[in-house]
Amino acid sequence: MDIRLSGVTKIFHPDITALEDVYLEIPKGEFVYLVGPTGSGKTTLMRTITREVVPSRGQITVGAFSLRKISRMDLSLFRRDVGVVFQDFCLLPHLNVFENVAFVLEVLGMPAREVKERTGEVLDRVNLWRRRFLYPPQLSGGEQQRVAIARAIVNSPSILLADEPTGNLDLHTAEEIMQLILSINALGATVLMATHNQYLVDAYRQRVVELKMGRVVRDETRGRYEIDGEL
Ligand SMILES: Nc1ncnc2c1ncn2[C@@H]1O[C@H](COP(=O)(O)OP(=O)(O)OP(=O)(O)O)[C@@H](O)[C@H]1O
Questions:
Q1: Which residue lies with its CA nearest to atom 18 of ligand 1?
Q2: Which residue's CA is minimally distant from atom 3 of ligand 1?
Q3: How much distance in Å is there from the Cα of 3 to the middle of ligand 1?
Q4: Do 142 and 133 contact (CB within 8 A), yes or no?
Q5: Mean pLDDT (whole number) for 191-207
Q6: In this predicted model, what pLDDT tens digit does every residue of 48-80 receive, in sequence order?
Q7: Ligand 1 pocket, mutate which of 40, 45, 54 (most atoms under 8 A from CB)
Q8: Which single residue of 8, 82, 111, 218 could bond 210 by disulfide (Cβ 3.0 to 4.6 Å)?
Q9: Whole-model pTM?
């Protein structure tokens, strides 16, 4: 699904302008880094795409869905097609690895046999099948993030939104996660990844969209993390 933001502004009460007149088109299957200083609006932009945040002005369309006037039913259909990964993993600590991932499909009402099969496949893909009976606190940070990614992609979404997915990881583990996210993109998912990780952005060159004070100030096809040493 193509993602299109036109003239998106978000003003939080009473007067914090988190996004200002953002125009952005992300074709289906593209990989985009979202960079910019803390507070520049990266998370807010992603949250407008999941429609957790509704813009004060402007329009967002994702595929055939126009998010401003989307019905409840369409919104839940739409959200099934968007996987989300966060910096702090957000796993359920009282469920084991398998259950954390299977849970997503169970709430969609999928038959138990299919849940088992799909969960098994995705855990294999992120190389965690052998750890399926462990609980999140028993896993390393990188393993927890792989569970979170498995959970995000188990329903084969067309879009993956990753908000600082390597923020809590060392460089080696961050690279593993990066390669996993790139492999998901290579299979066809559109990926939008907010990051402060200069090394990854410069090592795995992709489109870079930079925000400053809620505005898009740079959009480069194969950009670097920063221009002329300043950001
Ligand atoms: N729910 C909210 N209510 C009020 N202000 C908010 C809310 N969410 C975000 N903001 C404000 O909007 C601005 C942009 O925040 P946002 O989290 O999008 O930035 P960011 O670029 O993701 O930052 P970081 O790199 O630190 O994650 C900030 O000034 C923030 O305080």
A1: 41
A2: 12
A3: 21
A4: no
A5: 97
A6: 999 999 999 999 999 999 999 999 999 999 999
A7: 40
A8: 218
A9: 0.95
The distance from CA 191 to its chain's CA centroid, rounded to whole angstroms, is 7
CATH number of 3-220: 3.40.50.300
Beta strands in 78-187 (DSSP E): 82-86, 159-163
Closest among 177, 185, 130, 179 to 158, alpha carbons compared: 185
Q: Where are the domains of the chain?
A: 3-220
Q: How many helices (H) and strands (E) does the chain have?
A: 7, 10
**CA pair distance 198, 66, nearest whole angstrom:** 34
What was the ipTM of the complex prediction?
0.98
How does 56-69 read in b/e, with b if 16+ C-beta sit within 10 Å? Answer: eebebbbeebebee
Query: How far is Cα 68 from Cα 31, in angstroms, rounded to an integer?
Result: 24
